[in-house]
Amino acid sequence: MKLDPTCDRCDHRLSAYLDGEASDAAALDSHLHSCPACRHALAELEQCSRVLAVAPQPADPSFVARFRQRLEALETERAERWRLLAIRLMPLAAIALVAALALTALESGGPGGDESFTALERTVLAVGSPLVTESTADEAPASELLLAGAVDSRSIGGLRRADVRWP
Amino acid sequence: MTTARERDDDATLVQRFRAGDPAAFSELVERYEARARRLAYGFLRDQQGAEDVAQDSFLQAYRRIRSLKQPSSFRSWLFSIVVNRARDELRHRGRFEEVEDLEVPLREASTAPDELQTAESRELRGYLRRFIADLPVKYREPLLLKEVEGMTYAEIADLLEIPMGTAQIRIHRARLRLRDRLQTLGISASGAGAGAVTDEGARR
Q1: Is B99 on the interface with A (CB under 8 A)?
Q2: Of B120, B152, B189, the CB nearest to A43
Q3: pLDDT values of chain A reduced to their tens digit, one per residue, 167 residues
Q4: Which numeric CATH code is attached to B1-93?
Q5: Residue B49: what are its φ and ψ, rounded to 5°?
Q6: Is B18 part of the contact surface with chain A (CB cutoff 8 Å)?
Q7: Element (H, E) at B30
């Protein structure tokens, strides 16, 4: 049996009544007393609740142990991923370090470095990040020339700040 | 419903964990594992699936706990993770996963109201799993938070970030839809005993 179409007084308020959250519980109470259709509708809603009810799950002490195991396994896996990544990046880091050292050595060994370049800029140039523009004709990026030994630090010193455009 | 004491304790545990005490998170797991499994079971109707969803949810909570703005809201935050994870699992399994279950004749199903009340009959569980999966998400989630976890409308509204009136109406509509599906099985509040599964219903 459906809700009595002639009775539209309850509708979703029946669910609120069933859940103990109706703001007008007393009024619904008295209506339900006199309206078999709404009583039946309420019984159907109660039936749905009973069918969906899930018995409380007993506490499971081994759940926490399983959680810890999974967590440890994931942490180990993550640590291993970082280790492998570090191994892969090691050659690049070594190249950057050598280039930085070479620049530093050239700078301290040779006269006439352009003071408008900081050590950081020289290091960045050495690993080839910025693009070099407005330089003299058919110049390769300064970092490549330097790394290839084609120029010395004095040539690099000829570059101005305006020569370096950050990507 | 959460008591103020529980919320305080949750907040303390969350803060202890954030301060570097891993045992505090274990305490949170101990406190909520049964309820997380139960809530997940409400969605999936399958113990192993519920265990997996609960485990995944705690792992996610462990990783993201720094994003929890109010430590006292740990419980509803955790349950929202469980609900999302259960939703993903249902989507992953697909709607027609339990076809075999549905083919089991209901003649063998127990008609004992007690068993139906706790949805322990294997056959009914198969149907329920299907019916729950078929409910639109917007109806399914508030309904299960109410029926399984016993949350108040205000808590459900807060967790799902919807107005309280909307939560109430969606729960009601979800029940009506479920009622209609149950009636196709011959389960209704009328007839010879509420909750009885009839042979007639089984043949439909």
Answers
A1: no
A2: B189
A3: 344 445 766 788 899 999 999 988 898 999 999 888 889 889 989 988 888 888 788 889 899 999 999 989 988 988 888 889 988 888 888 899 999 998 888 877 655 555 555 666 665 555 554 444 444 444 444 444 444 444 444 444 444 444 444 44
A4: 1.10.1740.10
A5: -60, -40
A6: no
A7: helix B22-44
